[in-house]
Amino acid sequence: MNIHHKKKFLSFLKFKRDFQKYGLEKARSYELILHWLNNRLSRNQFLVLSGILVGCTAGLAGVLLKSLVHAIHHFITTKVHFEYQILFYIIFPFLGIVLTTSIVLTIFKGQDRKGIGAILYEIAQNSSIVSSVKMYSQIVQSAVTVGLGGSAGLESPIAVTGAAIGSNFAQTYRLSYKERTLLLAAGATAGIASAFNAPIAGIMFAFEILLTGVVFTDFIPLVVAAVCGSLLSRILLQEDVLFRFYTREAFNYKNVPYYLILGIVTGLYARYFVIISKKVEHFIKKLNMSRLRKAMFGGAVLSLLCVLFPPLFGEGYETVKAFTNGDVHRIIENSLFRYFEIGNFTIIIFLILVLLLKAFATSFTIFSGGNGGNFAPSLFAGGTVGYLFAIICQQIGFSEVPVTNLVLVGMAGAMSGVMYAPLTAIFLIAESSFGYDLFIPLMIASIMSYLIAKWFSPISPELKSLADQGKIFTNKHDKNILFSLKTEDFIDRYSQVINENAPVKELFELVKNGNKNIFAVVNDEKTLRGILTLDDIRPYLFTNDEVSASVSQIMKAPPAIIHPENQPLQILQAFDDTGVWNLPVVDAQNKFIGFISKSTILMSYRQLLKEYSE
C-alpha cells in the first residue's frame, strides 16, 4: 500500500471512529462511505452525487409502479372477453378504492395526505422533512387504486415518492434546509421524468411548482436526477408502457386559428374540471359516513361510470394513443355503445359524455379514498378535447384538419389549465411526441389555457385549500421559508402572571424580582383578563403616596390575542396592525399560555433565511 492510499485508508478509519463517537455506529457501510464523501467533496460535488443517487432511486420507484399498473390493465383490457371486462369494470374499481382506504386505515394509521399539495406542505410546514413512510406508502396506495381501475394518474404519487426519497437522503447525511429542499425537488423531478420519459418536463415541473429562487449551481442536481430517472425509464420500461406518440403532422402556420380556439376550449374545460372536483370534494366531506363507507360509495359510483364508459378506467393513456393512431372505433367497440351504429355522430356524443364524466370519475377516485393525481386525467381530457374538436371541425366542412396535432396540443392545454404549469405541459408533450416543431402551437394553447385558469383563480385550486388554511404561501419564496417556522417554538411559557385581585404592591414585588417587561393578568381559573407593561406601572413606582389600587384597576385589554394554531405570518400581521412587540397567547378556553415576541420570530426567520442562502 503506497503512502497516498495509506493516508486515505487512515483518514477513513478516523472518520469511522468519529462517526461512532456521535452514536451512528449502526450505519450501513454505504452510508459510512457517503458520509465520508460528504466530508471530502465540495458542496456542489456532493450535491451532484446526491442527485444521481436520488434520481436513480426515484426513477426505479417510478418504473416499478408504472410496470405493475400496466401489467394489471393489460390483463383486463386485452386478455379478457368483452362480457368479462364488464364484470371486471363492476368489481375492480370499487375494490381498488375500498382496499386503498383499508390499507391507509390499518397500515398507515389514517395518514393519507396526497398529491402535489403534500410536497408543498412538507416544504412549507415541515422544513422539507418528509416521513420515510412516504417512500413506499404512495406506491402501494396508488398501485392498488389505479391498478384496479381508479380514474386517476400515477405521476403525483411517483412525485411524492421521489420527494420522500430525496428528503430522507438529505436527512441521513444531515444536509441543510436548502439542500434538503433541493434534493426533495430532485426526487420529484426524477419521478416525473421517469413517468413520462421526459427529463426537461421534470425539471420544469420542479421550477414551476416546487422551487423558487434557486441559483444556477443548484440547477445541476435537478438535471442529473431528471436524466437518471428518464434513462432508467427508457431502458427498463417496455415500449407500450412509455408515454410516447410517434404519429403527428408537420406544423403549418395556417393552422394557428385551430390552436387558438383549442387553447380557449381547453382552458374552459380545465375550469369545468376544477369546479367539479371541488364540488365532489365538498360533497364527500359532508357525507355523514365513516371513511370506509365513503370509499364504498365512491367505488360504486366509479364502477358504474367505468361500465358505461370504459375509457374512464385507469389512467386512459391507451385511449389517447388510439386517438393519435386513428383507432377510435376500437374504443367504442369495447363499450356499451358497440350496440349502436358507430358513426361520427355516435363518436361525438360518446366523447362529450366521456369528457363530462371524467371530472366526476377522477374526483370520486381521489376524494372518496383512492390515491392518485390529476396529471393523467388532465392529459386524457385534453387529448379527448383535441380529438373531439378535430372531428367537429371536419364535420363542419374544414379540410386538412391536423387531427393528431390537435390531440397533442389539447393535452398540453388542459394540463396547463388544471395544473397551472404551462412550461411543464409544453415540454412534456414536445418531448413525448418528438414534436419540437410544435413548440409554437403548444405555447399558444398552453398559455391561453393558463391565462383563462388564472383569470378564474389566481392560484392552483390544488393549493388553494392549503393557502386558505394558512398552511402554505403561493407567491414569494421568503414567505415559504417563514411558513417552516412553528408558532409553538416562540411561546414564552415562563411569562410572569399576576391575579387580577392582587394589590399593586404585589405587582411591585413581581417587577423587582423578575426580568420581564410585560405581565399577564388572570383570574383564579387562569383565564386571561388583561395585560400590564412597565410603562403602565411606572407612574405608581415612583410615587411617595400609598397605592391602594388593585391590579384590575390599572390593567388594560391586550391589543390582540394569539392562538397556538395561528401561523407566523398571521402573527406578524397582528404585530404590524397593533404596533406592539409582545402579544398574549391563549387556548380555546381563553386560558393564558404565555407571551409571544415579534423579535423572536424575526430572529428565527433571519437565521433560517441565512441558512438557505449559504
From TrEMBL:
It holds the Pfam family Voltage_CLC. Coiled coil: none annotated. It is found in: Membrane. This is Chloride channel protein, CIC family. Its main location: membrane. SUPFAM superfamilies: CBS-domain pair, Clc chloride channel. Residues 491-547, 555-611 form the CBS domain. The chain crosses the membrane at residues 46-65, 86-108, 182-207, 219-236, 256-274, 295-313, 345-367, 379-397, 403-429, 436-456. Keywords: CBS domain, Chloride, Chloride channel, Ion channel, Ion transport, Membrane, Transmembrane, Transmembrane helix, Transport. GO terms for molecular function: chloride channel activity. The lineage of its organism: Bacteria, Pseudomonadati, Bacteroidota, Flavobacteriia, Flavobacteriales. CDD domains: Voltage_gated_ClC. Gene3D superfamilies: CBS-domain, Clc chloride channel. The keyword Cell wall biogenesis/degradation does not apply. GO terms for cellular component: chloride channel complex. It comes from Chryseobacterium taichungense. It is a multi-pass membrane protein.
